[in-house]
Amino acid sequence: MKRTLFILSAICSILYSCRSQSDGGDPIGTVPSVESVSVEDGSENTAVGLGYVDINYDIPILIKDTSLISLSGMTVKPSVANMRLRVGFGTLEYGTSYTLSVPAGAVVGKYGSVPAADFHVSFTTVPKPGGDIPYTPGEPGDYSQSPVTSDPINNAKLLYDYLLSIYGGKTLSGAMAKVAWNTDEAGWIYKWTGKYPAIATFDYIHLPDSPANWIDYSDITPVLDWWNAKGLVGAGWHWIVPTYEGSTSYTYDPSKTDFKPSNVVVDGTWENKVAKADLAKISSYLLLLQDHNIPVIWRPLHEAAGNTYTQWKSGAWFWWGRDGAEAYKALWRFMFDYFRDAGVRNLIWVWVTQTSEPGDSDYEFYPGDDYVDIVGRDIYGDKSNDYIVSSADIESQFETITHMIPHKMAALSEMGSVDNISKQRDAGAEWLYFMPWYDYYNDYTEDYDHLYAGISWWRQSFLDSSVLTRSDLPSALFPDWNK
After folding, report:
1. Which of 28, 106, 287, 306 could cysteine-pair with 316, CB 3.0–4.6 Å?
2. What's the number of CA atoms in the CB half-sphere (13 Å) around residue 344?
3. What share of the chain in percent tops pLDDT 90?
4. φ, ψ at 351 (rounded to 5°)
């Protein structure tokens, strides 16, 4: 009998050892070791809305005792996913030091229950910024139930309700107009996939030249044709301004213009006069779309912080961010109020954050929940150097952004050279929509390798049933379609 039990015990031990190997585990007796942490030890610019810290071990783990894990006395919510320990917590205080502690025995190896050694990481949050704090970090949810535009046209309200209904479950596909005022990229996507993206996005970058024989925003045919084909419409504005007062040369480069965003809101300045004239002109174009009951996913004044908070600390990329956060927010609200007073009621407002990790948070630039419907993030790799942004990196950015501004939907508002959308969604980055930038050199030939999102990228993304194309959009979004 003892011999039989010994044999059975040996068989079970072998099976258990094999099981641990086949499940991705290491041999019984291995001590889990920390390989990486999502917050650098000793960092001094951690965002107050960080929300969680990920500790990645070298083998699968389990939590042995949650009560041992702590963050400087705060209530924490530890969870495990294979080799990752995620410690969630509430909003942090500005300019405060914290230590996350995972004492020996709190975490054990999944196979064999060998305890991990004591581990801790310390960090300090960013100092409290000047001016008002236009956001309240927290757990994502409780999303704004109405667009920020007062008295929106019916189709804009229908669109907003639809966006809320799909957020977290589906992702809309999008394409950018090649240069400004066409659907060439959307047509190219259809050519190689047999499907149109759900959103076509246009750009009012050539506003000073319109109307002209080569660009005329008063001819809304490209937009109207897309809308009548039951596609959603987006628009952005690379707002170019004179290089100096009275100049006929235009730019958005802050190093090449004297145009100061802080002066836009000051009556009588030349910047104020230029801005009012431009806003009058573009509002007239937006009203043409409104006259056809076309709602617009509107993304102005994007990427305002530029490299202000990144490791390069080289400042804004566009003139609208050059005077800092307070001037930028005043400019955004100036535009918002101008459109309201002009009767523009067809916009869904998208603000773009430059935050890619907790240490480069740019939320001082956030205009506030009363002025924004969707928070966008623009993410690029570098195809020329074979750098494709991984889904894990993108998911980390998604988590950071959605905890910093938790009551607004989040979108991948511009992108290039990133993992396909299916991989991003599998990792947990459930964007409301995505939009690769256009490739200026795309000649639409079969062998052309798109700079930002190639044929194989689109085909792989469209294999995901949660990625929505134009044909997936409900007819209820287009009540005037057959009129």
Report:
1. 306
2. 26
3. 74
4. -105, 140
The answer to whether the beta carbons of residues 399 and 365 sit under 8 Å apart is: no
Residue 210 has pLDDT above 50, yes or no: yes
Q: List alpha helices for 250-324, DSSP H.
A: 261-264, 270-291
Q: Which amino acid is at 309?
A: Y
The Cα–Cα gap between 215 and 187 comes to 20
Q: Is 125 helix (H, G, I), strand (E, B) or coil?
A: strand
**What pLDDT is recorded for position 18?**
42
What single-letter amino acid sits at 329? K
Helix (H, G, I), strand (E, B) or coil at 133: coil
**What residues have CB less than 8 Å from 249, skipping those under 6 apart?**
242, 243
The per-residue b/e assignment along 102-121, b for 16 or more CB within 10 angstroms, e otherwise, is bbeebbbbbbbebbbeebeb
How much is the average pLDDT of 248-258?
97
Q: What's the confidence (pLDDT) of residue 314?
A: 85
Closest CA to 391 of 344, 425, 342: 425
Collapsed DSSP state (helix, strand, coil) of residue 437: coil
Q: Which of 143, 98, 67 is nearest to 358 (CA)?
A: 98
> Where along the chain do the CATH 2.60.40.1220 domains lie?
29-125
d(CA 362, CA 317): 14
User: 374 is written with which tokens?
Assistant: 């969707």
pLDDT at 7: 40
Fold of the 29-125 domain = Immunoglobulin-like (2.60.40)
The count of other CB atoms within 10 Å of the CB of residue 73 is 8
Delimit the CATH 3.20.20.80 region(s) of the chain: 154-477
Could you give the 3-state DSSP secondary structure of residue 104? coil
What are the distances in angstroms from CA 58 to CA 79, 84, 114, 246? Answer: 16, 9, 13, 63
Tokens of 41: 């030890």
Cβ atoms of 137 and 91 closer than 8 Å: yes
